[in-house]
Amino acid sequence: MSFSEWDQRCMSLALEEARRAADRGEVPVGAVLARGEVVLAHCGNAQIELHDATAHAEIRVLREAGVRESNYRLPGTTLYVTLEPCTMCCGAMVHARVERLVFATREPRSGAVLSTSAALDNPALNHRVGWAEGLYETESADLLHQFFQQRRGDQAEGS
Question: pTM for the whole thing?
Answer without folding.
Answer: 0.94
